[in-house]
Amino acid sequence: LATPSTIAMAPAHLSANATTTGMARTSGGVMGRPGGPPHVTPRPHLRSGTVPATTTTTTTTTTMLARVAQNGSRLALPAAPRVTAVRAQRGRAHQVRCYAEVPVNKVCRMLQCKVEGEEQAVAMDALLNEADKTMKSFSGYVGSTRMVCKSYWDFKSVMVFEGVPALEAYMESDVREKEILPLLEKAKGLAVDGDVKMQNFVYDQLP
Question: Is the pLDDT higher at 114 or at 38?
Fold first, then answer.
C-alpha cells in the first residue's frame, strides 16, 4: 500500500486519480475511517511507475478541443460587417470628388523667377507696371499683383482675368505677341540664369 508521503511525492494528476478512486470524503474524514488518513487504493500504474497512454480526463479534454476546432467560427467574436467597410470606402471616394471639384471662376497667369537683389527687383517692378498699363485696355483683364521675398529674392507677378475665355483670348492676341512678350524678354535679362517660369492658375480671393 502507498503511504501518505508517497502520495505527496506523486504528480498532481496521479494523486487526484488515486485519492478520488475507491473512496468518498465527508466533513469528518474518509467514509469508514473517520479522522484517519485517507485510504488509497493504488492502481497498477502507480506500482509499476508507468502512466497509461490515455485517461478519462485526457480523452474529455481532447474531445472538447476537437469540438472547439470544428466550431471555432461560432465561438469567435463576430467580424465587423462588410457593409461598414464598403460605406467607409464610398465616403472616402465622395470626399475626393468634393475636393476635386474646384470651381473655376477667375483665372490668372503667374510669372516666377529669382533675381540677384534690390536693383533687379526694382527693375522688374518697372516692367510689371508697364505691362499693367498695356493690359488695362484689354477686355477681361482684372489687374495684376506682385510678390517679392527680400530674403531669397524670389519674384512673382500675377495677371488676373475674369475667366478662362478671357485668358484664352489674351494668349492668342496681338497685345501679348507685340507688347507683352518683348517685356518678358527684358524680364529674362534680369532673372538669375534667365530662368522665368509662366504658369496658369485658378484664382479666387477669399471673403
Answer: 114
Q: How far apart are CA 10 and CA 19, in angstroms?
A: 11
What 3-state class would DSSP assign to 189? helix
pLDDT at 42: 53
CA 64 to chain centre: 42
Confidence (pLDDT) at 207: 83
Question: Do the beta carbons of residue 147 and residue 161 sit within 8 Å?
Answer: no
Close Cβ partners of 23 (under 8 Å, ≥ 6 residues apart): 30, 31, 38, 39, 40, 41
Ramachandran assignment for 70, one of left (phi > 0), alpha (psi -120 to 50 degrees), beta (any other): alpha
Residues 6+ apart with CB under 8 A from 201: 107, 108, 109, 110, 158
The structure's pTM equals 0.52
- Average pLDDT over the chain reads 75
Q: In what order do the strands lie in the sheet with 29-30?
A: 25-26, 29-30, 33-34
